[in-house]
Specification:
The structure is a single chain. The protein has about 190 residues and is an alpha/beta fold. The protein has a single domain, classed as Rossmann fold (3-Layer(aba) Sandwich), CATH 3.40.50. It has seven helices and seven strands. The termini are far apart. β4 (about 115-120), α6 and β5 (about 140-150) form a beta-alpha-beta unit. The protein is globular and about 45 Å long. The protein has a seven-stranded mixed beta sheet, with helices on both faces. It has helices at about 5-15, 20-35, 50-65, 80-90, 105-110, 125-140, 155-170, and strands spanning about 40-45, 70-75, 95-100, 115-120, 140-150, 175, 185-190.
Length: about 190
C-alpha cells in the first residue's frame, strides 16, 4: 500500500471525519510533496476540524523525508478540539502537527514568518474572511510557495468571489486552479 493509501485507510479505520473527498485529499497530499522542495517546509492549515487533512499532509512530509512542521489553526467553533487532538494522536503524526487554538487571521498576523511553503485555507467560508486571509497570506508565502483552499464551489459563493477577485488582482501567482471538485491552488512566482 502506498503512503497516501495508508494514511487514508488510517483515517477511515479510526473513524476520523473528513470533509474532503479522497480525490481532494490526494491533491493536498501531492501539493504537500511539492512544498517539500525546501528542507523543513513550513505548512499552515487554517481550519483543522477533525484532523484528516493534517494527517494527509503529515504523511506526505514523512514520505518526502524532509522534516518540516504543520501548524494547524482552528478556533474550535465546529468541533471539540480535544477530539481533534485525540485523532492526531491515533494517527501517529501528532509530533509533526501543532494544533493551535486561535482565530486563523489573528494567528497569521502575529505569529507566522514570511516563509510559508504551503498554506491550506479551509476555515470560515465568508467572502470577508477569505478576502482578508488571502491579503494576509499573499505577503507571507515565499517564492515558489503554494496557496491552496477548499470549498471553491457554488455552495460557497463567498469563497468563489473572494478567490476570483484576489486572482484578478494578484499577478505574483501562477494559476493552477480547481484540481477537482472544490479544491483550488496557486503557486507564487519564483522568477
Amino acid at each position: 500500500m502506498d503512503p497516501f493509501d495508508r494514511a487514508y485507510a488510517a483515517i477511515q479505520e479510526h473513524g476520523i471525519c473528513a470533509r474532503s473527498s479522497k480525490s481532494e485529499l490526494w491533491s493536498l497530499y501531492k501539493l504537500t510533496k511539492l512544498a517539500c522542495k525546501y528542507e523543513f517546509p513550513l505548512i499552515i492549515e487554517l481550519g483543522t476540524f477533525a484532523g484528516a487533512s493534517s494527517i494527509i499532509m503529515a504523511q506526505a512530509l514523512k514520505h518526502c523525508n524532509r522534516g518540516g512542521k504543520i501548524l494547524s489553526v482552528d478556533n474550535g467553533s465546529e468541533i471539540d478540539l480535544d477530539v481533534t487532538k485525540a485523532n492526531l494522536e491515533k494517527s501517529g503524526f501528532s509530533s509533526r502537527i501543532d494544533l493551535i487554538e486561535s482565530g486563523d487571521n489573528e494567528y497569521l498576523i502575529s505569529c507566522i514568518p514570511d516563509t510559508i511553503d504551503l498554506i491550506y485555507i479551509d476555515s470560515r467560508h465568508t467572502y470577508n474572511h477569505v478576502s482578508e486571509t488571502l491579503e494576509i497570506v499573499t505577503q507571507k508565502v515565499r517564492a515558489g510557495g503554494i496557496i491552496a483552499g477548499h470549498d471553491y464551489c457554488p455552495v460557497e459563493p463567498g469563497v468563489v468571489r473572494a478567490v476570483e477577485e484576489w486572482k484578478f488582482r494578484c499577478k505574483d501567482y501562477l494559476v493552477g486552479w480547481a484540481l477537482d471538485e472544490s479544491f483550488w491552488w496557486t503557486m507564487k512566482r519564483w522568477w
